[in-house]
Each structure stands twice: as C-alpha cells, then as structure tokens.
Design brief:
Residues 91-228 form the Fido domain. By secondary structure, the chain is an all-alpha fold. The protein has helices at 3-14, 20-41, 48-55, 65-87, 93-104, 135-149, 155-169, 176-190, 203-216, 220-241. Helix content is 65%, strand content 0%. Helix 9 (203-216) crosses helix 10. The two termini are 24 Å apart.
C-alpha cells in the first residue's frame, strides 16, 4: 500500500535540508489549512480567509469568541506538536492532556486537560464511547498498545490507528476530534512526513471510515484515507523543491 508513498518520502528526504523560506511558507500554508479544516469539521463557521485573518491577530465581525479561540488555540497546539517532534519525546498521556489543554484553553477551562466525568455520545456515529469510569483504564490500554505494538507499523498505519482508537475512547468532554488529528500528525511528523490535512469536504468519508474502524475493528478504509492525504502533502512539498 505504501510503496509509492515511501518512494516520494525518500525523494523528499534526499532534498533535505529544504530551503529556509520554502520550508517556512509550506509550514504557514499547512498550518492554515490544517487549522481551518480541523475546526470546520467540528462546526466552526470561519472561512479559510477569515481563519487566516484571525491567525494574524484580527477579529472577524459576526463570529463568536469561541470560534476565534478555536483558531488561536489550534495554532498553539500545532506549535506544541512541533516542539515534541523537535525534542524527539516519546508519546505520553501527559502530552495528550497538554494538547487538549491548549485546544480548550479559555473555551472550557474546567475540563481543559482533564478526562471527562460524564457520559457523552458521538453525533451520527454508531459507537457509544466508554462510560467515564473506564476512561483511565482504556487510555492506559491505548498507551500500552502504542508502546508495545506500534514500532513495527508504518507511520501512516500507526498514526491512523492511534487517531481512530483515541477518538473511539473519546476521553474528553470536548475537543476529541481536534486532538486526534493532532496526534495523527504528531506520529507522521516524528518520521519526517509533512503534516496532512483531512479536508472538511471529505468529512463524510472520514466519519464513515472511523465508524467502520470502531464497529468492525476494520481500519483499512481509514488508513487508506490517511495515506491519500499523506501523499497529497508529499506532492505539495516535492512540487516546491523539484
């Protein structure tokens, strides 16, 4: 499944280090698109141009404070992901809670970085997330799986499965989708892949692939969806440097 992607990744690696300004402009482009699409999937109504303006520190009239905060917070969470990658830190529950704290900062400070204490339901999904008293145990199982089973997996498979399993647990009261996509990209970026953007227009395929992963334990559709987006990001980088 990954032969062509691996070849493109090797080709990109051979071009490193990439020119400074090229790398900076690619980062800005992907940071904007990642932030816009991840928030739009969750219902944020800011357009991509409005998101860009908010990232530049300007308020958009007629939009809620929450929508503005979701943009700023997501940018800060991406910066944190980049720091983890730079320091080559192993994944931990502490990092996951920190990511969530950044995502929900000033939106819901009572629950930012804290596992939920209430039952929740995922709109439109067949899966009912675990009751609150099982979250700690399920997160420990997730971390054990990650530490023991994922070293042999391709980064795309590892990232996709981490995302799917995490969002199935739904450990937080809000912000699980954003955190899951941050975790997915964290895994890809650790292995030198550019971050991917799961586009809002592909939301239906995204939800259906996740539903299949959760109800049938069949992750293939979701892994393929992530692989396609990973190839798109590689193509973007290669186009810039070839």
């Amino acid at each position: 499944m990954f032969k062509q992607i691996n070849q493109k990744k090797d080709h990109l690696d051979a071009k490193r280090p990439l020119p400074t300004y090229t790398l900076s402009s690619l980062r800005e482009k992907l940071l904007l698109e990642w932030t816009y699409n991840s928030n739009a999937i969750e219902g944020n109504t800011l357009t991509i141009n409005e998101t860009k303006v908010v990232l530049e520190g300007i308020t958009v009239g007629g939009k809620t404070m929450r929508e503005h905060l979701e943009v700023i917070n997501h940018r800060d969470a991406i910066t944190y992901v980049e720091e983890i990658v730079k320091k080559n830190e192993p994944l931990s529950e502490w990092q996951i809670k920190n990511l969530h704290r950044l995502v929900l900062k000033e939106i819901n400070d009572d629950y930012a970085g804290a596992y939920r204490d209430q039952q929740v339901f995922i709109s439109g999904a067949e899966l009912t997330p675990a009751p609150p008293f099982l979250i700690k145990e399920q997160m420990e199982q997730l971390m054990n799986w990650y530490e023991q089973e994922t070293k042999r997996l391709h980064p795309i498979t590892r990232g996709a499965m981490l995302h799917a399993i995490f969002v199935g647990i739904h450990p937080f009261i809000d912000g699980n989708g954003r955190v899951s996509r941050l975790l997915l990209n964290l895994e890809l970026m650790k292995d030198g892949f550019p971050p991917i953007v799961i586009k809002v227009e592909n939301r239906l395929d995204y939800y259906e692939a996740l539903d299949k992963a959760h109800t049938q334990k069949d992750y293939d559709d979701f892994i393929q969806l992530v692989a396609k987006e990973a190839e798109d990001s590689l193509d973007l980088y290669l186009k810039a440097v070839d």
